[in-house]
Design brief:
Chain lengths: 321, 286, 129
């Protein structure tokens, strides 16, 4: 494991790719844990962006442009593109990288597609660990891209320092839906395809929603950018706003605060996952749950008394390290 | 801009597949829809503005690698469909295109297929010869109705460009292709020689092989050309092209023609346009 | 947890015929694999770098322009150069039978020509994984 970690620190592409598979597959959990623990002291340098928004908003095209610009200033960029797994087959088509494929031959860019899978711990857990791999490998930026719907998306977005919410004119109903959930987590709002009719109206709508939000919260400095990814227009401005937003987060201590919150969530997540796993193990030993059901059904035992006793025994056996 | 000033010069490109009557009805429905759109939506006055001119190519995905001579029959049916449907021009595929680039012999058969339909079959003697047939008229109505449904849907999305950008059009095409293939795989749809009436066969031995040396030869010719032409003029024409590309009101065609006359290469011209416009990136929905 | 099989479906060369590649990509997804699709007109270098970053188990190359004898082996060679020749390459498209032995010799492990049922490709992946 030390070896794999060393290779990652040396920015070995294959090692980075392999370790993300290790994280995703959960085939060897102890190995994964050892890897992440080894990398941990080397993390914290990368700036993490989340980019989300409805399908068709142009997230990947915009990201493609951002990468172009970040590369011009010689920054190394890693992208984690999350796509949904089919609930029926478990398979997935991972197509986000298509629009960024011109960076495929640039060694300063690493694009990794991830399927949401739906394994224990969820995609958020795997993404959190994958960010650490890229961070430790010296990528200056780690950018997570998701489609902006659902609770999982929000969890994934919460892993980033800055959330970019990409919207596009003409999605009338969708902004309503976004207001409820994803709007809450956006830091920078990007109206893409700004040349379309309704871009200005969308801007005022967002300003309105933000004014409601800001009146409830302490002062924040959300900004709204207008871009056209296909025309390569407004990209520099948007980046400047993102950079300055990040500086302000950094300077006034909110970045540290955010990252601590993230660690708190991570710790809770690890704890819950592990305890749940133990709980499942506890219930399934020799299929005794069936026996207990029978005992309780026949009034030979009462539920609380029985379980308090059994859990006590289990915890002793478990001998938590 | 007056619609009648240019509508008569627009033309379309269609594919023809094996379902003869459905294909004929498809082309008829297209002609009807175009006339209605031009007349009712764009207020065209000239009859030529309402005429749908179209080229047809026979369907490449219908060619089979198995028993490739059967493709001659398929292409003939598709040719007939296009002509009965009123096409202005035609590209017939060759029988061996599922195996490689076509041989001279195969291309000749494909061309002769068109010529037999044109000169021997008699189907070109009357305009819209299947009009009035119950099946054809019914199919035409049904297809027209379903196409309007699509056109309205695309309008709702915000137009064709938007529909392509967000992948709607591709998704519809891919879903249809996927369904088709699944039907073939399950045997529900018969493809002769592929999932029914198969034989043990050897591939024909006369498949065209392109000599890799041709590439080197072409590269040689190109570098020779670049030495011999007046490179100062080429650079100047390419700069003019770049300036024209930067000006959205400029017509690029005359500038491209003058660049070509100075022997600017296709690659050089396209690179200028690529640098100015960027490259199209398909949006894929699978 | 069992390891998920990841497959890159890639189109090297200049032809734009992607009906087959897209069908295979989607059918493999329906068979439970994670499929990454590159889009058309990819260089061997881009395909290999993508395959490595995505840590795929298989690369499926699709080509209908006749340049398979040239481009398929280039992908194999580049993978070797990157010490990633454990990734299994298969191919498909308009490929004459007489070219198949040569391609196999150069490291293309299987070639699927037009008319191949998807179950044959899945069976191959299952036997080779």
């Amino acid at each position: 494991m030390q070896n794999l970690a060393n290779q990652i620190l040396k920015q070995d592409i294959r090692a980075i790719a392999r370790s993300i598979s290790l994280i995703e597959n959960e085939t060897d959990i102890s190995q994964k844990e050892a890897l992440i623990d080894t990398l941990h002291p080397h993390c914290g340098n990368a700036i993490v962006w989340g980019i989300t928004g409805p399908p068709g908003a142009g997230k990947s095209s915009l990201l493609d442009r951002f990468i172009e610009h970040l590369r011009q200033s010689n920054k190394k960029v890693a992208v984690i593109a999350v796509d949904p797994s089919s609930p029926f087959s478990g398979g997935a088509i991972l197509g986000d990288r298509l629009r960024m494929q011109k960076h495929a031959t640039d060694d300063g860019v690493f694009i990794r597609s991830m399927a949401s899978r739906g394994h224990l711990g969820g995609v958020a857990g795997a993404t959190a660990d994958a960010i650490k791999v890229f961070d430790a490998a010296g990528f200056d930026y780690v950018i997570i891209e998701t489609i902006g719907v659902g609770q999982t998306e929000i969890e994934v977005m919460e892993l980033s320092d800055i959330v970019l919410l990409v919207l596009v004119p003409g999605l009338g109903d969708e902004i309503q839906a976004m207001k409820a959930g994803v709007m809450e987590i956006g830091d920078i709002f990007i109206i893409n395809k700004k040349d379309l009719d309704g871009a200005d109206r969308l801007k005022s709508e967002i300003e309105y929603v933000l004014s409601l939000k800001d009146s409830m919260e302490s002062a924040s400095n959300h900004s709204i950018c207008m871009t056209s990814a296909t025309q390569n227009d407004g990209i520099g401005d948007a980046l400047a706003q993102i950079h300055s937003y990040f500086s302000s987060l950094h300077d006034d201590g909110r970045l540290a605060q955010k990252r601590k919150e993230r660690i708190e969530k991570e710790l809770k997540h690890i704890a819950t996952t592990k305890i749940m796993a133990s709980a499942n193990r506890f219930l399934n030993i020799d299929q005794r749950l069936n026996d207990w059901v029978e005992e309780v059904f026949q009034k030979k035992a009462s539920p609380y008394k029985l379980l308090n006793k059994k859990i006590g025994e289990f915890l002793q056996e478990l001998n938590w390290q | 801009m007056d619609i009648d000033s240019f509508a008569g010069r627009l033309s379309f490109f269609f594919n023809a597949h094996n379902d003869l009557l459905e294909e004929v009805a498809k082309f008829r429905a297209a002609r009807r829809i175009w006339a209605k759109v031009m007349k009712e939506k764009f207020n065209a006055q000239k009859p030529t503005s309402m005429m749908l001119r179209f080229h047809t190519q026979t369907g490449g995905s219908t060619l089979t690698a198995q028993q490739p001579d059967n493709n001659i029959v398929r292409v003939a049916i598709q040719t007939l469909a296009a002509v009965l449907g009123g096409t202005q021009s035609l590209h017939t595929n060759s029988r061996d295109e599922a195996l490689g680039l076509p041989t001279e012999d195969s291309v000749r058969i494909a061309l002769r297929t068109q010529q037999i339909v044109a000169h021997e079959s008699g189907v070109t003697n009357s305009i819209d010869p299947l009009a009035g047939s119950y099946t054809i008229e019914k199919l035409t109505d049904t297809i027209e109705e379903q196409v309007w449904h699509y056109l309205n849907k695309i309008e709702d999305i915000g137009g064709m460009v938007r529909a392509i950008e967000n992948g709607y059009v591709q998704k519809e095409i891919q879903d249809a292709a996927y369904r088709y293939q699944q039907e073939v795989e399950s045997g529900e749809r018969v493809v002769v020689g592929v999932n029914k009436f198969t034989i043990n066969e050897n591939q024909p031995s006369d498949i065209l092989k392109v000599d890799p040396k041709l590439r080197d030869l072409q590269i040689c010719k190109l570098s020779e050309l670049k030495k011999q032409r007046n490179n100062e003029n080429v650079t100047q024409k390419l700069t003019e092209l770049r300036l024209a590309a930067q000006d959205s009101d400029k017509n690029l065609m005359p500038v491209i023609v003058t660049a070509v006359k100075e022997y600017a290469t296709l690659g050089e011209i396209c690179n200028i346009l690529r640098e100015e416009f960027g490259e199209y990136q398909e949006s894929i929905v699978l | 947890m069992t390891k998920k099989i990841r497959i890159l479906i890639a189109k090297p060369g200049l032809d734009g015929h992607d009906r087959g590649a897209k069908y295979v990509a989607r059918a493999l997804k329906d068979a439970g694999y994670e499929v990454i699709y590159t889009g058309i007109r990819q260089t061997p270098d881009a395909i290999v770098k993508t395959a490595i970053q995505e840590d795929v188990d298989f690369i499926g190359l699709s080509l209908l322009s006749g340049a398979h004898n040239e481009l398929f082996p280039k992908v194999v060679d580049l993978l070797k150069l990157k010490n990633a020749d454990d990734i299994i390459i298969f191919g498909g498209g308009v490929i004459p039978e007489s070219d198949i032995p040569g391609l196999k010799e150069k490291g293309i492990r299987a070639v699927f020509t037009p008319g191949t049922p998807i179950k044959d490709i899945i069976a191959y992946i299952e036997s080779a994984k």
